[in-house]
Structures are given as C-alpha cells and as structure tokens.
Amino acid sequence: MTNILNKKIGIVGGGQLGKMMIQAAKQMGFWIAIIDPTEKCPAHSLSDFHIVAGLDDKNAIKELAALCDVITYESEHINAEALIELEEKHGATIYPSPKSLKIIQNKYDQKTELHKNNVAIPYFLNVTDSGDLPSVGNELGYPFMLKSATGGYDGKGNYLINSPDDFDEGYKSLGAGTLPLMAEKFVDYEMEISVIACRAICGNIKVFPVGHNTHVNSILDETIVPAPINKQTMELAMDTAHKVMEVFEGVGIFCVEMFVDKKGDVLVNEVAPRPHNSGHYTIEACVTSQFEQHIRAICGLPLGDASLTRPVAMINILGEEGFDGETLVEGVSDALAVKGAKLHIYGKTHTKPRRKMGHITATADTVEEAAKLCRKAKKCIKIIAKEE
Amino acid sequence: MTNILNKKIGIVGGGQLGKMMIQAAKQMGFWIAIIDPTEKCPAHSLSDFHIVAGLDDKNAIKELAALCDVITYESEHINAEALIELEEKHGATIYPSPKSLKIIQNKYDQKTELHKNNVAIPYFLNVTDSGDLPSVGNELGYPFMLKSATGGYDGKGNYLINSPDDFDEGYKSLGAGTLPLMAEKFVDYEMEISVIACRAICGNIKVFPVGHNTHVNSILDETIVPAPINKQTMELAMDTAHKVMEVFEGVGIFCVEMFVDKKGDVLVNEVAPRPHNSGHYTIEACVTSQFEQHIRAICGLPLGDASLTRPVAMINILGEEGFDGETLVEGVSDALAVKGAKLHIYGKTHTKPRRKMGHITATADTVEEAAKLCRKAKKCIKIIAKEE
Q1: Residue A295 belongs to what H/E stretch?
Q2: Chain B: closest CA distance from residue A340 (Å)
C-alpha cells in the first residue's frame, strides 16, 4: 500500500462530499479509503480502497481505522458511539471529535451547548411527549417549529405548528414519540446565511466569507457570496462561527447556518460538523476550498488562506420530478456554453426527485452577474432516468 | 458500467497529465478508463478502469476503444500507427487526430508542416547520416542544434554542436544513426515562452495567455503568467498558437513552445499535442483549466473561457538527486504554511533524480509576488526515497 505522504485518510461516506474531499486530497497526493454501502457511489472510483458497508457498521469502521492514520466523515448521521469506542479503546485518530459529533447529532443537546456558551440561538424547549405541546405553545407562541432532535436534514424532521390544531399531525409526522423532539420559537428571519469555518488541531481557526442561502422546498437552492448584508452583520456572523468552532473544539470544516432577523441580529439555526453544500462555492472562489481545508485540518497541516478571490454564486442541480431510475444527464453542452459556468456532476448512478445530483458555480465581477450565469446554465441541465 | 453523461473517455497513459485530466473529467461526472504499464500510476486510483499494459500495446488500445466512446492520450510517444488503424478500420473516435500525431511525433515532419504553412520556425535541415554534418555546419553556422527527430523530451535528444569537433560525440549520443536526425540553426533567444491552445471539433479555437518558461538542466522549472513581453509580442505568440492549431487541425489541448529572439520575433520551437507542464498554472489561474478544456474538446462540448483571473507562477518539484526508490515527500507542512501555495503531488510511488513528482502554483497581485510564494514553498519540499 503506497503512502508517499505518511498519512492515510479514511472517510466514512462516499457521497458528493466524500468525493470532493478526495478530489482535494488526491491533488496533494494522499491515499484514501472510504466506507459506503453503494458500490458505485460518487467517491468510489476516486478512492484507493472501498469498504462496501453501511455507515453504521462497527466492523467496517474498525477495518477503516486499521487501514488509515486519520478518519473523518461526510455525514453527521453515523454511528458516533462506534467512533467514540474506536477512539477510546483502540487509539484511533478521528476528526471532528466523535464526542462533539454526538452532541451535535442531537439538536437539543447541540442548542443547549451553544446556549450555555452564550451563542445566540432561537429560544427552544424540550418536548418529551405530545402532552407537552400545549404548554410549549403557550411559552413559544404561534407559529412555532416542532423538530425531531435527531436525524433530520434538508427540512426533513421539521414541522411548523401554526396552532394547536396542528399538534396531532405534527406529532405523528415526526415519529409519534419514537424520536426525541424539541420545539423552537419561530424566527421571522430576513435572510438565511451560513459560514464555513475550520479549526486546526493546534486550535487555529479560519473563517470563510458569509454566504446567503436560498432554499426551495427546504432544500438549498442557491448560495451567493458575499452575502448582501452590512459589515456589522457580516462580522457578527463570522465571529459567531468562530465561537461555535471553539465551543465544539471542532477539528476540520464545520458549517454554521444562521438566521439574520429583522433587527440584523444573528441566530444560529444549525451546526453541521463537516463540509457543507453551502460551501461548495469555495472550490472556485476561494484560495483554499472547504475540502482542501478539511483535509489540511484533519491531517495536522497548516490551514490555507480562506479569502474570497471573486464574487460567486452556486446553484444546486436536483433530480427532476417524475424520474426515478438510472441517471442520465441532459443539456451538458448547452450548460457549458454559458461562459464561466463550472459544472459539477456527482456521479450518482440512481436519480430520484429532488436528490442532489450536482451543482453549478460561476464567478463574476458581481454576485448578481454570477447568479445570472448559474441560473442560465442550470436551466439547460435536466437529470432524468434512462428508459428501461 | 455506469455512464451518466453518455460519453466514456479512454486515456492512453496514466501519469500526472492523465491524472489531472481525470480530476477535471470526474468533476463533470465522466467515466474514465486508462492504459498504463504501472499498476500504481498517478491516475490509477482515480480511473474507473485500468488496463495494465504498455502505451504501445495494440491489443490494449483495442480493448480501450471497445470500452470507450472517445480516446485521447497524455504523451506523444505512443503507437500512432495503432491509433490510425483503430480509427480507420474500427471507426474509433480519437482526439487529437492520430494522423496529426504521427506528423508531430517526427520533429522534422512537424517543422516541415509548420514551414509549409508559413509558421515562423528556426531554419532547419534534414540529417541522413554523419557525413551530412560538415555541410550542415556550413549552412547553419556554429553553434547549431543536432536533434533526434523522434522520441526526445525534457532536453533528451538534443545536442549542441559548437564546432566540427563535436560531430562524433553528438552523433553518437543521439543514437549513431539508429534514430532519424535533424539540425536546427541555434536561436540566441531572449526568452522561452509557451502558449496553450485548444481546438474544438467544430473548429472553434481558444488560446490561453502566454507563459514565460525557465528551464534548469533542460527541464521546465518555472512558468510565470502573464509573460513579461510587450503587447505586440504577446499577440504574435497567441496568433502563432492559433495558426498551429489550424495547421494540425488539432482537437484538444496543444502546447506551442516558442522562442522570443532579440528582435522580438517569435519562432516555434516545438509543438506537443496534449496538455503540457507549462499549462498547469491554468488549474488555479484560469476560468477553465487546460485539463477541463481538453475534456470539453474531445467530448464535443463547447470550449470554456480561457482567460486569466490572476497573475500566477508555477514551479516544478523534481525528485532529489541521490534518491532512487519508494517515494517519500518531506516538508508538506512547511510548504502549506506559505499563504496561497497550492501543492500538487502526483502520487508517483517511485522517485528518481529529476523525475517530475509534483508542482506548486501560487496566484498573487503580481507575477513577481506569485513566483516568490512558489519558490518559498518549493524550498520546503524534498522528494526523497524511503529507507529500505
């Protein structure tokens, strides 16, 4: 097994985030192994070794640790206990820390930790069962957000309670008591933003510029950078991300999603302990991408320059509605005819409605121009399924 | 076999150029197969399929053609006849055209073709055997360059004849008549430059900015862009590259190496029908890299924007003198501490003195600043061999 850089990297998960981590790592010459249940996952053909197994598979994670010098992951929905055991009993090096991961995995615990450390977040309450909902409603007012504390993403696991009439439906749709729940005051936000930040093993922290995110059907649609906010809010957002990195002692890339409310205050909505969709713009528009930064951090290397080189927009490409089957990408030629459009197709062999299949990035003199180019290119692309 | 983009790409050669082609192709979602004799070659872990065979192996090339929709190559030192046969008899799609490749492979034929088409080149003569050398010397004057017409690279295959006393040594060192030879008037050049250009199947041509190259021991050491030449010379160089693309009807990336003489005239020194070491700067400093452009061209996709986004320098990392064995890269941490330095390590498992093992790129406000960063980072890196 070749290891010219004295550090072999293992990644739990071989989706698009794993793939883009590997692209950055391979440029620098690293050896990479992955765990992913899908044989032809996006990262498969780029990795040196692929353990085909579930992300929760304890034995697979042990095998990965035996092969690699450092382990990281592309998703927070993995077996944190297995990683903690591996770290404590077998001395494996795992970044970000599995103990932080475990706290972050449970949104109630995550928010409690942030709150304890004076990071501004929406007012939140624990929900033990449906019987709590009337008093929660009284406390938070209406509407409020009912959330499953674990396992949610892309809006899954959230339910907006407009009045007590929604209690039954909301409670049922979030597992009817099978999942831990929490409730949050509804934030009538002006804007959703996110900040990608990275912490090195030595504690050094680099914060990327602030992105403005637009969601469609609760899935990220577009990120533009710099976000159209004033300098004060921008600094507040970046300082908040910096603080979050200190709270969780995260090593590697974290994404801190925030609301900007009508008063210009910044409230942390969610923390993801990994590279994030809203940070894909860094590949083309920052000196160091979030993926290279993550690899640098987990390997104990110095962090790179996180500054923006040009205004940028990123737009997601999702699987078309009505198609579920073997992926076919249409319109590549037309999309690439849009000057400056950079096309990323993840290589998922199976498309489903709204599945994240790729993205387009464009840089330009202004974010408006960059966004225009992205939208123009995106209009050309259709992800459909092959005819049987 | 998954093929979400309706085009599978085959590459003859899995060295660093193949690797970087794949990095660009994988970002866009392409399926890739390679031929390379080395199992752990740089492109190995990034390709979907690897035929372990020599680049001249006719059967391997046939197998590759059966697997792929389009074939390209990373080196001009391959079996052009086999490719021509494949194209003519089996209808394989191969870019750049094997017929152009065959002309380019022989420097005498290459120069003749350029000369016929009024592209300025150094005055050159055919050399059939050592008996020609006195008359060649009379015609060209001293010193002159004796070159093997085939197989040379990185200064190999060139011999500077300072006087008739050098005839014997020069003739012997270039194969003593076993290789076809040619002779060229010595150009007392002011500067070596190169231009990367790309031609699409439809005939559209995009020309990248002019790079200034510095060689050490006949191996490229550093490229800076834009080259420190006046606007007129720059336009002349770019027009020349454009013309060369038309002469050879090249599809894909070509590199046109040129001399700028004391009068500011531009003379073509050599044409390479592939992405080139002096074009690596395009990865960080152009909207579209030479590798993405090549993939776009050979797949019949529209060419991307070739313009420079920032002044840039690229410096090569070679295997240290005195080390021949299993590669070990030292100093990565120090190199990455240089702000803005982008490290590329090719992943060659065996190092040898002066072997191309990686490169460093840096962008900055000026080429001088970029070059300073590159040199600072390069000083940290040592490619040595592991102790047995």
Answers
A1: helix A290-298
A2: 6
